UniProtKB/TrEMBL annotation:
Main location: membrane
Cellular component GO terms held in the UniProt record: plasma membrane
Alphabetically ordered keywords of this record: Membrane, Transmembrane, Transmembrane helix
Membrane topology type: Multi-pass membrane protein
Cell compartment(s), UniProt: Membrane
Lineage of origin: Eukaryota, Metazoa, Chordata, Craniata, Vertebrata
Name by which UniProt lists this protein: XK-related protein
Transmembrane segments: 43-64, 70-94, 207-231, 273-291, 311-335, 355-375, 387-406
Highest taxon above the source species: Eukaryota
InterPro entries: XK-rel, XK-related_adapter
Species of the source: Carassius auratus
Similarity field: Belongs to the XK family.
Length: 473
């Protein structure tokens, strides 16, 4: 703890110092938190991306109308309005506005300006926070992480009304960022890149829309990754370092850019087959959680939302599964759905599934690029196509490398892993060596060597760490 004198309105450190020597019976330190409320920067950023992409898409649609590109105009408007409508429904659903008398807010949502009024509300809450002392509404219990490990007893922090309201706004905008990224920005970027190649020239408005869409997609993928970490390690106070964000940006940016470029190039040569590729990916990832749900013979989760019938719950689960499938078409979703769980997320990480996903995706990208190379049109004669193929393959390989670097060195909870990337690779290499040496050692008969289960030990490892913390407290 810092020995300096705290600020007048921030007594968190003082109370923590006084309570650390005498924790409660359960090893919990009570912390009275009256610190400053963090500004809603994520809300501002998501709103700015939403407005910028909406405006650029509207201007570009008008240009397509003037040049009589009816098909591209219709698709641009579709990819602009569909995620916008879903964004309005998400914000209305999270804030429960249908049961409240708020005609101005509902009218702004009908005008597709819901994120703007929500952003203004969040700024008003932030500006008014701390002026009047307010009672807390809930208590948050977390375990601090030091050098990636659990440190000290758990801390209980009081959360006031203003902080809780801002948390609701942040969570709502995280959902809208993911919806906007993978139901709007991703198909929009794919369409505009395809139009650019077909027209053989770049419009400034189209280029601006492509850049904004790419930023929106990478941000949505970052939100998915951070949410997966926060859900998995909900008992810990997780803080991401700048190096972790930089590594994630490089990982997600290269992965998504390579994937979209591969699909667009393939579509310029084999347009009918790209529809089959997209639908196959969509169906596989859409039905995969449902097949696992039916195999386990599980039942639908209860209390997803009050007053929800079985039909309404099924519709919500189908929407969530559709979003999950759209994410996995272009990049790793970082979360696995468990339709029988109340949180709808499987908290036990599956490294094997991650390895299978990236292996199959790498093979698919290489196959599509090679097919494009052999069936390409005469337009690409002025481009060094072999170099482009090599660049796409290398860029996706770099994305995988940055993903491994993130989990090995930059993951905020990497010390809680029982096995990390290096350990998995070492165990796999040792297992391969034993497999090759087995016939020489045991010439009398073959001997099976089962690969070590690197997944089931993770929960035991975390439980041991938590038990050690409680015992030392």
């Amino acid at each position: 703890m810092d020995s300096n004198k705290p600020a007048k309105h921030d007594i968190t450190e003082v109370v923590a110092q006084e309570s650390a020597a005498n924790p409660t019976e359960n090893g919990v330190v009570m912390v009275i938190n009256h610190g400053k409320v963090h500004p809603p920067l994520s809300v501002l950023w998501t709103t700015a991306l939403y407005c910028a992409e909406f405006i650029c898409a509207s201007v570009l649609s008008s240009m397509y109308h003037n040049t009589e590109h009816v098909v591209w105009m219709g698709l641009t408007i579709t990819f602009m309005l569909v995620p916008s409508v879903l964004t309005q429904l998400t914000l209305t659903f999270v804030h429960r506005d249908l049961g409240r008398d708020r005609p101005l807010v509902l009218f702004m949502h009908l005008l597709q300006m819901g994120p703007i009024i929500r952003c203004i509300e969040a700024l008003v809450v932030y500006c008014q926070a701390g002026k009047n002392e307010e009672p807390y509404v809930t208590i948050s219990r977390k375990i601090k992480l030091k050098h990636g490990r659990g440190f000290g007893p758990a801390f209980e922090c009081e959360i006031g009304h203003s902080e809780r309201k801002l948390a609701i706004h942040r969570n709502a905008f995280k959902r809208t960022a993911v919806i906007q990224a993978f139901l709007g920005s991703t198909p929009q970027l794919t369409l505009q890149l395809y139009a650019t190649i077909q027209e053989k020239y770049v419009l400034h408005t189209r280029l601006a829309l492509m850049i904004i869409s790419m930023i929106s997609i990478v941000y949505g993928a970052l939100v998915c990754s951070v949410l997966a970490i926060q859900i998995k390690y909900d008992d810990y106070k997780v803080r991401m370092k700048p190096a972790a964000y930089l590594c994630m940006i490089l990982w997600r940016g290269l992965e998504i850019a390579t994937r979209i470029t591969t699909l667009v190039l393939f579509s310029t040569t084999l347009s009918a087959w790209v529809v089959l590729v997209g639908l196959t990916n969509l169906f596989i990832f859409f039905f995969q959680p449902w097949v696992e749900f039916w195999v386990r013979k599980a039942s639908l989760p209860e209390n997803i939302e009050n007053n929800f019938s079985k039909l309404s719950t099924t519709v919500v689960l189908c929407m969530v599964t559709f979003l999950y499938a759209c994410i996995n078409i272009f990049c790793w979703s970082a979360v696995q759905l468990d339709l029988a769980d109340h949180d709808l997320v499987e908290k036990q990480p599956r490294w094997r599934r991650l390895a299978i996903y990236y292996t199959l995706r790498f093979m698919e990208n290489v196959t599509l690029v090679i097919l494009w190379y052999y069936f390409k049109s005469d337009f690409y004669e002025y481009i060094c196509t072999p170099l482009l193929v090599v660049q796409l393959i290398i860029c996706y390989g770099l994305a995988v490398i940055f993903m491994l670097i993130f989990h090995q060195f930059c993951h905020p909870c990497r010390r809680l892993f029982h096995y990390n990337v290096e350990d998995c690779l070492r165990c796999y290499c040792c297992w391969k060596e034993k497999q090759s040496e087995a016939p020489e050692i045991n010439a009398g008969g073959p001997q099976e060597h089962a690969s070590p289960d690197l997944i089931n030990h993770l929960t035991d490892r975390e439980t041991d760490i938590v038990d050690d913390i409680i015992e030392t407290a």
